[in-house]
Specification:
By secondary structure, this protein is mainly β. The protein has one domain (8-550). The protein has nine helices and 30 strands. It has helices at residues 8-15, 18-22, 129-137, 216-219, 230-234, 337-341, 346-351, 353-360, 467-471, and strands at 69-76, 92-99, 104-111, 140-148, 154-156, 164-167, 172-176, 190-192, 197-202, 208-212, 245-248, 255-258, 266-273, 278-285, 288-290, 292-300, 316-322, 327-330, 365-366, 368-373, 380-384, 406-412, 422-429, 439-444, 449-454, 475-480, 490-494, 500-506, 513-518, 544-550. The strands form seven sheets. The chain has a six-stranded mixed beta sheet with strand order 8-7-12-11-10-9, with no helix packed on it. The radius of gyration is 22 Å and the shape is globular. It starts with 7 loop residues before the first helix and ends with a strand. The chain binds MU-OXO-diiron and calcium ion (CA) (2 copies). One calcium ion (CA) is lined by residues 198-199, 267, 369, 440-441.
């Protein structure tokens, strides 16, 4: 956790704490992934001193890195993970690693979506039960054993009996929190499958959270007026069983959908503790005109309780942000009369969360995607991807002028994550002047640099005057948050055609940057395949996990 009074010295002591990994310690702060756990605490991470030549924009079907760096593909869609033949899913998005014991660690990757039309063998567009099953099976996530190779680099081990999948087809997941067993989830206490797994987060007690984002694309949503996909026709399930933060304990494979954290297009989750010790979870809802949330547990986080802290995510108060007045609005019918008058009880708030936020007066935002807690200041950085004109235009926040998005920063009153009030500012606006466009994923390095990936839509041929014409393929930038270069954007890598980068994460020793390349060739049409990455030749494109390091 990140008590705001933490000194830089304490921070470095922690980040240098190889013993934390070596002992298989279960106390793993959410931002631990951003830290170099190398024995030499003073060693800078791969991007620590920014000594790379910024790469130019590119429209090429290639992963471009600065001179002196190289990229290696570690995992590809379809790789066989274990002896029973389970495979690495499609559209890898969130990635994280967790210490396990002295020799091994866990790697977790989300699988957000599936493009069957890009699978080998082609597709005539007809849905069958087998196709629907494949569509669900290739979503979810992969848990993979990591070991050091002969060069000392942490690498996935496959196939291996430890490796397993959670998927959208068969994985049984408990429903927890106020909505479980109520009519709002059709009386269920268990759901089948997890889908649309976008970003995520690590709990302080060492479990993985995976965020169910655009669940409506598979299961539909009556509230949003979205019909289920053809795949759901073969496997009909209630929409209300999806759209949650799902917590997985990789050691026991226990999984819970935490209804107390609300139901919407969950992008990711980032944890902190309030000054009084209660757990705080920050979350974005990636849809134009939707809101920023935080959950505050009823009880205090107890490090010694380990995975039993899971109960904290079942009882607490969900708040939505009024960024214009700087207030957190409780989505609690007992505190917000408008909710009670509209017939909301606490269980319904957990399922119809967007409606509750609007009734409470929360601010519609420009697609709030990743939220991350600054490791030293405790400020909450928010990717505001883009405000799309049209619906809700009249509600466009006055501060938000850029169509190319922005990164916002929220400072809690008194530096207390449990505060009811905050200040909100724009840290970096998008646009040609700054070099930022449509920010999606955020991550911090130990040196307080923010890693930012972009996600704007691309086409086989850029439209004149559009984002793609100006910026090329999607890319990854480094933005210092302190020092003389604070707020300056430096481009480190460019993705292959059609792809976006997801979840930039330093390797356990800090010497590599791991990043998922999602949907290369995703802009292909029926007559034009835009990417052959990563296998080249006449192969079909595949989403893949890549490690970037120095050449020497
Ligand atoms: Fe799955 Fe909002 O990106
Ligand atoms: Ca995302
Ligand atoms: Ca994305």
């Amino acid at each position: 956790m990140i008590p705001l009074a933490h000194s830089r010295r304490q921070f470095l002591q922690f980040t240098g704490a190889a013993a934390v990994v070596a002992a298989g310690h279960r106390l793993v702060p959410a931002w631990f992934n951003a830290q170099a756990a190398a024995p030499a605490a003073k060693a800078l991470s791969l991007l620590g001193n920014l000594d790379f030549g910024a790469v130019a924009i590119s429209h090429a079907d290639a992963l471009t890195v600065p001179a002196g760096f190289k990229a290696e593909v570690l995992l590809r869609r379809g790789d066989v993970l274990n002896p029973q033949g389970e495979r690495y899913g499609d559209h890898n998005d969130y990635l994280t690693w967790l210490p396990r014991d002295e020799r091994t660690a866990w790697l977790w990757c989300n699988h957000e979506n599936v493009q069957l039309e890009l699978f080998e063998g082609g597709w005539d567009g007809r849905w069958t039960e087998a196709r629907a099953a494949e569509f669900l099976r290739m979503q979810g996530g992969s848990a993979i054993r990591l070991e050091r190779d002969g060069a000392g680099r942490w690498r996935p081990v496959l196939p291996h009996a430890d490796n397993f999948r959670a998927d959208g087809l068969t994985t049984k997941i408990a429903l927890g929190g106020p909505a479980a067993g109520t009519s709002w989830v059709k009386g269920a206490r268990e759901a089948i499958g997890t889908t649309s797994n976008c970003g995520g987060g690590l709990t302080p007690w060492g479990t993985v959270c995976t965020a169910e984002e655009n669940y409506q694309e598979t299961w539909g949503d009556p509230e949003m007026g979205v019909a289920p996909s053809p795949a759901a026709g073969f496997f009909p399930r209630p929409s209300e069983h999806y759209g949650y933060i799902v917590e997985l304990d990789l050691a026991t494979r226990a999984a819970v959908k935490h209804t107390a954290l609300g139901r919407f297009a969950h992008e990711n989750v980032a944890f902190n503790t309030a000054r009084d010790g209660r757990l705080v979870a920050y979350m974005g809802d990636d849809r134009n005109g939707e809101c920023l949330y935080k959950f505050v547990s009823d009880e205090k986080y107890e490090p010694a309780a380990g995975a039993a802290n899971r109960r904290l995510l079942e009882r607490g108060t969900l708040f939505a942000a009024d960024t214009e007045k700087g207030r957190w609005l409780p989505l609690d019918p007992a505190q917000t009369p408008a909710l009670a008058r509209a017939g909301f009880d606490r269980a319904r708030v957990c399922v119809h969360t967007r409606a509750a936020a609007k009734l409470a007066g929360a601010t519609p935002l420009a697609r709030p995607e990743d939220v991350e807690v600054h490791p030293l200041t405790g400020e909450v950085y928010v990717a505001l991807t883009s405000w799309q004109p049209g619906k809700n235009e009249a509600k466009r926040p006055a501060y938000f002028k850029e169509a190319a998005g922005a990164i916002g920063a929220l400072r809690e009153a008194g530096g207390d994550a449990g505060a009811r009030e905050f200040e909100f500012r724009i840290f970096v606006p998008g646009g040609a002047e700054t070099g930022l466009a449509w920010p999606d994923n955020l991550a911090f390095t130990p040196e307080q640099h923010l890693l930012v990936t972009t996600d704007f839509s691309v086409k086989p041929r850029p439209e004149a005057g559009g984002t793609q014409a100006a910026f090329g393929n999607n890319f990854l930038v480094v933005v210092p948050t302190a020092g003389p270069a604070a707020g300056q954007v430096k481009r480190f890598a460019v993705a292959p055609r059609g792809a976006e980068f997801c979840s930039p994460t330093l390797s356990p020793d800090g010497g590599e940057l791991w990043v998922n390349v999602q949907h290369p060739g995703g802009d292909s049409t029926a007559t034009e395949l835009t990417s052959r990455w990563p296998n080249g030749g006449t192969s079909m494109p595949r989403s893949a996990l890549v490690a970037i390091r120095r050449e020497t």
